[in-house]
Amino acid sequence: MTRYATAKGLLGLGLAALLMGSTAVSAKTLVYCSEGSPENFTPALNTTGTSFDAARPVYNQLTEFARGSTTVVPGLAESWTFSDDAKVITFKLRKGVKFHATKDFKPSRDFNADDVLFSFNRQWKEDHPFFKVSGGKYDYFNDMDMPKLLKTIEKKDDYTVVMTLNEPNAPILANLAMDFASIHSQEYADFLVKQGKPELMDQIPVGTGPFSFVAYQKDAVIRFKANKDYFGQEKALIDDLVFAITPDPTARLAKLRKGECHHMAYPRPADLEEIKKDAALQMMQQPGLNIAYWSFNVTKPPFDKKEVRQAMNMAVDKAAIIRDVYLGAGAPAKNLIPPTIWSYNDTVKDYPFDQAKAKELLEKAGVKTPLEIDLWYMPVQRPYNPNGKRIAEMMQSDLAKLGINAKLVTYEWGEYRKRMQQGEHITGQLGWTGDNGDPDNFFFLRGCSAARPGGQNLSKWCNKEFDDRLKKAAAMSDNKERAKLYEEMQLIQKEDAPDMTIAHSIVYEPMRKEVTGYKMSPFNRHEFYGVDMK
Amino acid sequence: MIKFLLKRAALTLPTFFALMFVTFVAIRMVPGDPVEVRTGERGISPERLAQFRHELGLDQPIWKQFADYVWQLLHGDFGTSVVTNEKVLTEFFALFPATLELSAAAMLFAVLLGVPAGVIAAVKRGSWFDHTLMGAAVTGFSMPIFWWGLLLIMLVSERWGLTPVSGRIDLINYYFEPVTGFMLIDALKSDQPGAFWSALHHLILPMIVLGTVPLAVIARMTRSSMLEVLSEDYVRTAKAKGLSPFRVIGYHALRNALIPVVTIVGLQVGTLLAGAVLTETIFSWPGVGKWLIEAIGRRDYPALQGGILLISSMVIVVNLIIDVLYGAINPRIRHGR
Amino acid sequence: MAVDALAAQPAQPVPPGPLRAFWASFSENKGAVGGLVVLVIIALMAIFADVVSPYSPFEQFRDFTKLPPAWEDGGNWKFVLGTDALGRDTLTRLIYGARISLFIGVAVMATSVIVGVLLGLAASFLGGIVDTVIMRVMDLILSVPGLVLAILVVAVLGPSLTNTIVAVAIVYLPSYVRLVRASALGELGKDYVTASRVAGVGTMRLMFVTILPNCLAPLIVQAALGVSNAILEAAALGFLGLGAQPPTPEWGSMLADSREFIRSNPWIVTLPGLAILVTVVAINLMGDGLRDALDPKLKRS
Questions:
Q1: Nearest chain A alpha carbon to B284
Q2: C1 pLDDT band (50/70/90 cuts)?
Q3: C36 near C287, Cβ under 8 Å?
Q4: B161–A251 C-beta distance less than 8 A
Q5: I need a labelling partner for A130 at 20 to 30 A (CA). Which of A149, A301, B157, C26 fits?
């Protein structure tokens, strides 16, 4: 056996050398070093970017975000019209769109209205035959309030779908471009039911997208190949797309540098310098749609006093945190929203790092030192916060100089968030990543309704001036008027200091020089159609 | 013999049941739950949370959950992963070959290198080779392998470019469907030229990292047991009879010296699996060790429970086999009990 | 003849006391002595960390982050072994880390030896159902791979220094129980035990005063190795983020914390690992010497 193996291997080595040239020309393979395994391949079931990235090459939605932007463009729906009361939307579907074939399944018809109905009803109607398949947790469908929003979805003819809403909702078109609204094949579903394996729906994906699914080996690799029949303007320019699942960022970078992959997800901030120096690599960057903050629980003394909260803002050296923890992959935040979102108020002045002034404020508030507080830090890395623990250690050290002993506390991630929402902490870190670029998507985090126990307002801060404006702005349609209110709210928030806004991250994507045409997505998607290799 | 075997096997049954119960209870004592963990910053409404907990049976009293679990197990069902909705058994056996391949390679590496090195050290006792080897063995034995792995990747893969950084095969040039899950075998079967070498090339570094501790243990063990045997009367007699030293060492001495070594190899199985957790984490090796750690992080109760149960059963079975083998080699033990 | 031999005896040197004999045989092994010396140095540094180390382990020199050791380019002799990502002095943290790691090692060893001796003696003396239950539980612990078990225990109890010690102690408990039980069973059959029994010595006294001392030699050897294993296991837990919590300077978590700098600043990662390795090697060398000195059968071979 061994001898056989060796002989064959040696022979193979020679052959490989011979064949190397020809394979390189005939097939373009792009390897993307991804950060983890998807939970499955049905986006509606999932919540993580990792899972969405893995399913995205296969699917389309009715509407879509143009590659590399937040602009909504036609997808599987060619066009749409709103009724006068804006409650009824009529979608005209694209004709001649082919679903992918798998080893067993060969589609007999083109995409039509049945597929649209299937995709939404599966998430919506509890009596739908696929509702319970694969656990049936449709988090995004529910998070986006779709069950409340939707009244009916009807098929008018094979290429016309009518969606009726309970109330007008302008962002609906953007919502339909999100991953959870991906369109699946009704025919494939029927086929699987006949085979008695409905769960394969979520494991062997069939869609209309620029790539078709080939194979998946858990924790190792996902393979796609270009869909030659793709309807879109921007097609797959490479032949094979491979996700090499590599959870360790150091290993991802090493693979990228050695040419074992061409593009990598989420580099470590510590490695950015090295990447910039490598002549074989290029790197793109853009500000992230997020915020990391440090909340003060205003229901717990002495943080009920404004002076104390302001003192905290002055006591911590934010610049040092940006320098030593974000290592250049972050910008100091003075507002809750990042500067790329409209209504950002640049006239807001951040608190300076001034420990003497902080001490004065504490004395004024009658705080006696040593003061014992707790400081909760996140047990996990998040897009907005590369290392909660290190930030906490720096804060602890800064606070110690004022005679404040901060005890570092953390819990398992789900537990952590739940306890903080209940208001068990005195001070603690968290953050937020935006979904749709609307300011309300951030400011609700400091609204009164979110300040209830269990709500997302971790400062439990309910300021009437702030909250009135928040409610008013949400009901208005004129973005200019809304912007004015949001700008005022940013001033109120900074003055009353329910939190310390730490940073907005900067997202980097390194790739090899031979990769061309890649566009960074503001939603942090990793998309490879329209991408070529030199 | 069969009676002995049955008796030993019967003894492991209560262990197995206790294991099932203890892990079941322990896992449910871990703070956090699988539904909460996956929701992130966004959270989940209490109604939906309650609904999912109900569907997963998490709202039942724990004894009821346990009874259901045992009932399932008796039907050969290890449950379904909360995260991926795949059968735990399917997931486990999709990943297990990778762990087995790595562990077997590491063990082979340790034995093939450790036994000859130990023999030479014993024969040339006190020589520089002996001293160097024993020094190296203590170091290997003391190695924090997570650090060793990082160090080797940094030097061997990155600085010197000798081995790939991680993964099991070159993904750009080779592709074939997994048949056995053992990359080396699949690569051979695939008829893709060079695939086998690529797979082997990817295996080298993780194999060395995982094999370091067993290698040190085996080398030390072989040396000391060889020394003991060499001083026995029958070896001296053989020498005195004028048999060639090669024959004395290779045939008479080694055969007897290997008995304790075989036991040690068996005992290292548990160590190997524990080491695999770290090695797989460092090398992004798609095996069950890494999978278990991730299951803890995601509070994937069924996966965690099933994984621990399956791995421990294997350890129990391997120990049983060793007991039996040992009894076969050394009849005194069998009759002594 | 016999008389002659007896008469000649006074001329021979007095046989050395047991301690002296032990030391004589221990010091024959150069590796063991070397290990002992290194270990004593590390232990002294750990005990007098407050005096020996240049700074506080928590003091952050924000203007001097991620310095390499002084002899490297860009090093600074103020920070001999460099600084970590937050500008804390690496040498200082390593010295304090020795305190933590040795403490973990000794605490784990002490816990598992004490519990192990009690359970082992109970199993061997009481026999029957007690014996069966104890040994089955030990089998149970042994059947779960050590690190996985430790991780599970820490996950249940929550990560902290104390829980690390508990988790690792549980993992190593079975080896002590088995060892004590086996050697106690071996001793129980011997004449002197029967003699003591006949003389009416109580069970407790028999267990702890008569038999235990005779099982000590293998126990001491095992305990020495147990310290080094515990340090390794605790470091592995720290590496997986489940060990001592920040800002405690534990070696494993120092390594895990700075893992991201393995490419840009390899020193920060290399040094804690090296500290673990050196300490564990020293303990193991010493343990080998102990074994050779305490186990005459091996010594002569």
A1: A246
A2: very low
A3: no
A4: no
A5: A149
Q: Hey, what amino acid is at B322? A: I
What pTM was estimated for this model as a whole? 0.83
If phi > 0 it is left, if psi is from -120 to 50 it is alpha, else beta; for residue A51 that is alpha
> B290 to each of B92, B275, B277, how far by Cα in Å?
11, 11, 6
Taken in order B325, B326, B331, B334, the sign of the CA dihedral is: negative
| Rounded Cα gap, residues B127 and B134, in angstroms | 11
Nearest chain C alpha carbon to B147: C273
Rounded to a whole number of angstroms, the distance from the CA of B59 to the nearest CA of chain A is: 16
Helix, strand, coil share (%) of chain C residues, nearest 5: 75, 0, 25
C222: burial class by Cβ within 10 Å (0-12, 13-18, 19+)?
buried
Nearest to C276 among B147, B231, B296 (CB): B147
Q: Using DSSP, how many helices (H) and how many strands (E) does chain B show?
A: 15, 0
Instruction: Verify whether the Cβ–Cβ distance B291 to A13 is below 8 Å.
Output: no
Structure tokens at A140: 């995004």
How many CA atoms lie within 13 Å of C209's alpha carbon, on the beta-carbon side?
Answer: 8
Query: If pLDDT is split at 50, 70 and 90, which confidence band does C296 have?
Result: low
Tell me what the mean pLDDT of segment A362-372 comes to.
90
CA distance C187 to C215: 8
Q: How many CB pairs below 8 A link B and C? A: 125
**pLDDT grade, residue C14 (50/70/90)?**
low
Q: In this structure, what token pair is assigned to residue B81?
A: 């992963």
Classify strands A427-433 and A240-245 as parallel, antiparallel or unpaired: unpaired
Closest-CA distance of chain A to residue B123, Å? 30
Judged by CB atoms within 8 Å, which residues 198-227 of C form the interface with B? none
- B157–A258: do the CB atoms touch at under 8 Å? yes
Within 74-103 of B, beta carbons closer than 8 Å to A belong to: 82-86, 91, 94-95, 98
Q: Which of C59, C60, C84, C254 should we substitute to test contact with A (largest number of A Cβ atoms within 10 Å)? A: C60
Structure tokens at C171: 């993992």
CA distance B229 to B223: 10
* Strand A29-34, strand A240-245: pairing: parallel
Structure tokens at A175: 């919502």
Q: What percent of chain A has pLDDT over 70?
A: 95
Hey, which chains touch C, using 3+ CB pairs under 8 Å?
A: A, B
Listed by number, the residues of chain B in 186-215 with a beta carbon closer than 8 Å to a beta carbon of chain A are 188, 192-197, 200
Mean pLDDT of C272-285: 93
**Angstrom distance (rounded) from CA A342 to CA A347:** 14
The C-alpha of B176 sits at a distance from chain C's nearest C-alpha, in angstroms, of 33
Q: Do A258 and B44 touch (CB under 8 A)?
A: no
B254-292 residue pLDDT tens? 777 777 777 777 777 777 877 888 899 888 888 998 888
Q: How many residues are recorded in chain B?
A: 337
Pairing of strands A427-433, A371-376: parallel
The rounded Cα B97 to chain-centroid distance in angstroms is 11
List phi, psi (to 5°) of B39: -85, -15
Closest chain B residue by Cα to residue A256: B165
Please, which residues have CB within 8 angstroms of residue B94's CB and are 6 or more apart in sequence? A217, A218, B181
Q: Using a CB-CB distance cutoff of 8 angstroms, which residues of chain C are in contact with residue A408?
A: 245-247
Which chains share 3+ C-beta pairs under 8 angstroms with A?
Answer: B, C
**Residue A268 is nearest to which of C60, C246, C260, comparing CB atoms?**
C260
d(CA A160, CA A81): 11
The closest alpha carbon to A119, from A166, A165, A32, A187, belongs to A187
pLDDT tens readout for residues A36-57: 889 889 999 888 888 999 999 9
